[in-house]
Design goal:
Layout (H helix, E strand, L loop, with lengths): L23 H24 L5 H4 L3 H18 L3 E3 L9 E3 L15 E6 L6 E2 L5 E12 L5 E14 L4 E4 L10 E4 L1 H9 L1 E4 L17
Parallel strand pairs: 3-5
Antiparallel strand pairs: 1-2, 4-8, 5-6, 6-9, 7-8
Helix pairs in contact: 1-3
């Protein structure tokens, strides 16, 4: 199967609302660069006798790496955003010239980036008021038995408030990592403002909603 090199333009929603002057075209360029980086790394790994990245890094580790690729590539392609260089900082992408430093621990303005193989139920560590961009992807063996290359199938973006999150903190002496989950209403905000949705990727009523003209 041919490896994807860019988003299918027929499924790109050019009416999507993006903040801070970020454009859909800049997201497209960032995705193309992420594909180039991911596939290039896999070419090197295979030539060197290693297993591909999606087999070396499983679950959240793979999603975290792809998220980092996307953050750096969006910053590279955008004229208005830069990557947050603070380890553990929030949000991932900062509006240029807004903060006094590119290392921000907890900023009020910017875009948080999340990459996930899941169709929903996305989580974070804390409920945050911010713009969130979710990149859904598929890779490897599917339920149908088909083996798919790493492919983005849906890109969503919305401004979420704290009311769009439900928080599960620690109880008693529990060492469980606190998590915040996006509520049904928050997920709907994201799905209603899609940047990209390929055929069959939508969930529920969104399965038949694509970019105009696709």
């Amino acid at each position: 199967m041919e490896l994807p090199r860019a988003l299918d333009k027929g499924y790109v929603n050019r009416r999507a609302i993006l903040p801070y002057g970020l454009t859909v075209e800049e997201v497209e360029r960032a995705v193309a660069e992420t594909y180039r980086l991911f596939h290039g790394l896999n070419d090197y790994l295979k030539q060197s006798g290693f297993r591909p990245l999606e087999e070396l890094l499983l679950g959240n580790s793979l999603s975290g790496i792809i998220s980092e690729f996307l953050v750096k590539n969006i910053a590279k392609s955008s004229s208005v955003l830069e990557a947050n260089t603070k380890i553990g900082g929030h949000p991932d992408l900062l509006p240029k010239d807004y903060y006094t430093s590119s290392a921000v621990l907890k900023g009020e303005h910017g875009i948080e980036v999340k990459c996930s193989i899941q169709k929903g139920g996305w989580q974070g560590h804390n409920p945050e008021e911010c713009w969130l961009m979710v990149f859904r992807y598929v890779v490897g063996k599917q339920r149908s038995g088909e083996i798919l290359p790493f492919t983005f199938v849906e890109i969503l973006c919305a401004e979420l408030t704290k009311a769009d999150w439900s928080f599960s903190g620690r109880k008693g002496e529990s060492r469980r990592t606190p998590t915040a989950s996006i509520t049904t209403g928050g997920v709907e905000k994201l799905r209603n403002n899609f940047i990209y949705r390929s055929s069959g990727a939508g969930v529920g009523k969104h399965r038949s909603i694509f970019a105009s003209g696709s």
